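Loading example: each entry is read as two labelled lines plus one structure line.
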Amino acid sequence: MRFAPSPTGKVHIGNIRAAIYNWLFARHTGGKFLLRVEDTDLERSTPEAIKVLFECMEWLGLDYDEEVFYQTKNVNRHLAVVEQLIASGHAYKCEKTSRDGKTGTVVMFKMPKEGVIEYDDIVKGHMAKKAEDIQDFAIVRSDGSPIFHIANVVDDIDQRITHIIRGDDHVENTFKHICIFRALGAPVPKYGHLSMIVNQQGKPYSKRDGAAFVGEYREQGYLPEALFNYLLLLGWNPGDDREVLSRDEMVKLFELEKVHVTAAMFDPKKLAWMNGEYIKKIPQAEFKALLKEKVKVEGEGEEWWDYLCAQVQPRTKFLNDLDTSCAYLASEDYPFDEKAVAKRLQKDGVKATLLDLVERFAKVDDWTAPVLEEMVKGLSQGQGMGPWVHPIRVAVSGRGEGIGLFEMLQLLGREKTLARLKSAAEKYCP
RNA sequence: GGCCCCUUCGUCUAUCGGCUAGGACAUCUGGUUCUCAUCCAGGUAAGAGCGGUUCGACUCCGCUAGGGGCUGCCA
């Protein structure tokens, strides 16, 4: 199998899904998965664009067998094959005027004029088309460069590709390509065409629909495993209720025959959910290292970090949220959310409550979450701790939501808690 | 226009002639003696339409409607 993208500087999610399906099919069947860079568009195929492609592949754990195959290095072969086709009467030179008005000599592939071209698509089933419905098509431009159809087929022959898994937009090309394989006396590979990924409006997913490229998910703090898993589920399932699958399970269970024919709508919410599921799976030590990197707190011991991780990890959906959601831990100059301040602090009586708490908290010897909770519970006299809990939270963290309040206080320690309650009461309360 | 393909809850899907149509995300309700971006319990919600085959059709066939792809000296 092969993944044959043209490097344009970004990798589209629909494209990478094709790579994922190819990769899984190869790993499942024990075949080889090759990477071919279709870099014949010299303007867009820069070294940077190729680098981006490699980075995406690596990020998602899509490793490939054999060396990378660059299409530009095979141009002489493409042209030699074209000569062969002309000699055997399967292609001919012809004067043609292109859409933009250029006139020149191109080489056309001669389609059969009668009969039916058919093949069994691994995902779409039996496909057939009358030869007369397909026009002859160009395979060499007037500047002498080979066109996609011939380059693609010749490279597939040279790389000994047996299964071609690609996007739905290539189904019509398949009938043409089959004819080229036959004209060359080469075995026709098996084909499988993947449906498109569509946006919320049911239209093909384009860059206007927000994140259409793999790199954007990476930047937004998505885990590669989550994106991989989500994209896999968009058009395939193991046949039971399992959704979050390990890489090993995916390889074991994946079957191309079970891939769907219908277009799938991309649902960012489900991806977000899945990302949270994968964040929960991150080994504790690894998550701790990540957290330390994002949230700069000096002088706390491992125990403190472990305790924080236990609170934060299960609530995290995006790694990128970590620095803002934990900002109050890193600095005394933490930001205050306006809405939270208005709702919880700018109310009559709150100032008195907070200052009263400062006095009570000052007397607590054993500064731990359970002790603090007992204390506030005592104050609430069974009426609910809301009137205490909410103002405290906003005062010490600047936010209306976050980890458990008493755990938060324990993490902050007595000194910071008292200072923050006092200063927030002075600064924000009427 | 021509050719090809598709059509189950809002979304991703299960079902391969027996269905009280199942699950997940989202949403709603309740619980978890604080928030929810955790956890638990529950609810709302689907077979595009019309014919045919059949004891029986979401499943098979036909037509209609709707959607998509292709129709380049792009890939």
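The radius of gyration of chain A is 30 Å.
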